[in-house]
Design goal:
168 residues; 4-stranded mixed β-sheet; 2 domains; 31% helix; alpha/beta; 5 helices
Length: 168
């Protein structure tokens, strides 16, 4: 009987799995409407006092999205002021929804990736994951890897979709 050979393991393919780099940590949305008069109007003195009295330690080592659930119109400095309180305790602060926050987390991750080892190699970007990876993160990763890789595929080693192949 012939020996079963794992051709995928012997191939030069390199699989990039976002899940291996997934930044752990609680993601929270901070709604500033709680500090607005009737949830709609920013009164500077009261707003500043409420921020000063707020328990910021609850955001220690978390990822925080600053958002407003009401249709309030408020000055941009309001989000900046909230950010100034979060900066010393949170891992990362962004403006917008939790979805926006997740994109920023992954954009930072992709930007910091060292991909030198992928130079002139066939790369598979793993598609299945137990954790949610934003589509935009895959776009950013593809753009970065495509600059150095011989080829880029998406999926699993047993079933990939070709995305890019370097011209000779």
């Amino acid at each position: 009987m012939d020996e079963i050979v794992n051709r995928v393991a012997k191939s030069p393919l390199i699989t990039f799995d976002f899940e291996e780099f997934y930044p752990e940590g609680k993601r929270l949305e901070l709604d500033i409407s709680q500090w607005l008069f009737e949830g709609l109007i920013l009164r500077e003195k009261e707003f500043r006092a409420a921020l000063k009295d707020h328990n910021w330690d609850q955001y220690k080592d978390t990822y925080v999205a600053i958002d407003c659930s009401s249709d309030a119109i408020f000055p941009s400095w309001a989000i900046l002021l909230v950010t100034s309180y979060l900066e010393p305790v949170a891992k990362l602060v962004s403006a917008g929804t939790l979805k926006d926050l997740e994109l920023i987390i992954f954009a930072n991750l992709v930007q910091e990736l060292n991909i030198a080892h992928l130079e002139n190699k066939p790369v598979i970007i793993k598609g299945c994951s137990d954790k949610h990876i934003p589509d935009a993160a895959f776009v950013l990763l593809t753009q970065k890897i495509q600059k150095v890789a011989k080829s880029v595929m998406f999926g699993e080693a047993c079933s990939t979709v070709p995305i890019y192949k370097k011209s000779k």
